[in-house]
Amino acid sequence: MAVRRFSLGLMFAALAALGPVACGSGASELTRVAVIGPDPKMVETVSAPLAAGEALLRSNVAQGLVRFDERGQVIPGLAERWNVSDDGLSYIFRLQTGEWPDGRKVKADEIARILSRQLRPASKNPLKDTLGAVREIVAMTDRVIEIRLNAPRPNLLQLLAQPEFGLVRASVGTGPFQPATAEQIAPLPSELKQLPGIFLAHRIRIPDADDPVEKIHLTGGDAPKLVAAFAKGDLELVLGGTVGDLPYAFAAKVPRGSRRFDPVAGLFGLMPTKRSATLGEKDVRQLLSRAIDREALIAGLHVGGLQPRATLLQAGLEGIGPLQQPAWLGQPAIERRQELIREAQRLFGNVERPALRVFLPTGPGGEYLLARLRYDWEPLGLRVDRAPSAASADLVWIDEVAPSSSPAWFLRQFRCESVPICLQNADPLMDQARLTPDSTQRAQLFLEAARMMDEAQLFIPVAAPIRWSLVSGRAPGFEENPFARHTLVGLAGTGSGGGLR
Questions:
Q1: DSSP notation for 325-384
Q2: What is the signed CA dihedral for 62, 109, 95, 99, rounded to 10 degrees?
Q3: Which residues neighbour 83 within 8 Å (Cβ) at sequence distance 6 or greater?
Q4: For residue 7, is pLDDT > 80?
């Protein structure tokens, strides 16, 4: 495996000594990046799902042992290289020679402790369960760390590259970017120096250039404001778009090709709760799923390549071949409506039909989803209302991107310890899959658990999640990727390395 070798100590020394950097030959301009949502802030200990800005900042200033490049491929982070044992039970990482920003040497025993804390029983890291096969993390020397597994995990590196497993000490990370002041990345026009948000700097080496500094200004904000700023040319990149704010992206007049969509996998659909006794009946949940006109719903979103699905798992996952969708999914919704009305009559009789309270994404995209559900479910005699919170809802809209290509993440979201409606006999299959060393047997266990969950309709899938960005021609280094995790390195086309080479 070809790897780049970086010196963290040199990188931090270079940044500390930057002072004003002239925008002469080869020097990069300031790239203005915004993330939909609250202003990005550094989260040291991850104890809840990260907001889009938190994830972006953490992944760019606090890399893990490995990190993602612009295409979503795993590349060296704090570790300069690694080896995997033939049986897949041991990952050995060799750390770069470097220091924390305060000058303290980066050592393997401290890195092992930081990672181990994320996996201990008391940890609330939302991705902790994805590393359930990890037996222990040990330092072998000052620069070598080993992760030992109970069973092989081909997707381990994808998980370690997620921002939840970024390495943070005393609220700082090891790059590739570091926070900077406006003076350190000057000269800037006075109006830019006063921008609210965070300045980031990253010194790189590229051929025929005078050590340019990649300069980023990062901020947050609500979708209408950021989309309008992009349309005016005041931003090079807007990240963090979801279905809730998607209509804003289409309403704005932006250059052709600016709207970009990540080809993510994940969960996008409805999870029933126990608030309504009606939804405790499997037949009712199946009726609701069959009544959704997925083709029409997806057509109204105007996202190219988005495919309807009625299965919990998504095609293309590790060890999973093409998935057989139920036959009714290919039948036009109008043709199956009369049968569904008869089924509703059988289930509910002549008594008053229940009202369903649905917790949906905020914004005009959520209103669109509500309108579609009403159009599809009201002919069954069901009233559909928006719930003000997940706790008050009969159905909760789930919109989550899978952190790796493993089917395990999809299935383990519906364990009995995690959801209100579950299958007791599916949990042992997932536990068995976690421990089996045979990849074929593991895939078979996953498929059987998925079949059972689909039959019980524990989840009402619609499609893959939607993650969109607005990208200007001044950010040529941007690329869509399967995890919607975007590096800020190389956005302006000044190189794609992770630090000093």
A1: --GGGGS-HHHHHHHHHHHHHHHHTTSPPPEEEEE--SSHHHHHHHHHHHHHHGGGT-EE
A2: 60
A3: 91, 92
A4: no
> Whats the size of the chain, residue-wise?
501
Determine the Cα–Cα distance for residues 106 and 250; give it in Å rounded to an integer.
Answer: 46
Cα–chain-centroid distance for residue 190? 36
Q: Name the DSSP letter for residue 210.
A: S
3-state secondary structure of 159: helix
Q: Which of 483, 487, 484, 468 is nearest to 241 (CA)?
A: 468
What phi, psi does 147 have (nearest 5°)? -110, 120
Q: State whether residue 267 is helix, strand or coil.
A: strand
What tens digit of pLDDT does each residue of 250-271 get?
A: 999 999 999 999 999 999 999 9
Q: Report the distance separating Cα 313 and Cα 265, nearest Å.
A: 9
- Rounded Cα distance between 212 and 206, Å, is 8
**Torsion from C-alpha of 335, 340, 345, 348, nearest 10 degrees:** -160
Q: How many CB atoms lie within 10 A of CB 338?
A: 10
Copy the structure tokens of residue 292.
């959704």
* Residue pLDDT, tens place only, 88-100: 999 999 999 888 8
Please identify which residue in the block is written with the tokens 């790897």. Answer: 3
Counting runs of H as helices and runs of E as strands, what totals does the chain give?
A: 14, 18
Q: Answer whether 220's CB lies under 8 Å from 430's CB.
A: no
What's at 436, amino acid-wise? T
Phi and psi at 365, nearest 5°, equal: -65, -40
Alpha carbon distance 285, 374 (integer Å): 16
Q: List the end-to-end C-alpha distance of the chain, in Å, as a whole number.
A: 16
Q: Which is it for strands 144-149 and 395-401: parallel, antiparallel or unpaired?
A: unpaired
> What is the pTM for the complete model shown?
0.91
What whole-number distance in Å separates Cα of residue 335 and Cα of residue 376?
13
Assigned token pair, 24: 């002469």
Return the DSSP state at 279: G
Provide the 10 A C-beta neighbour count for residue 105.
13
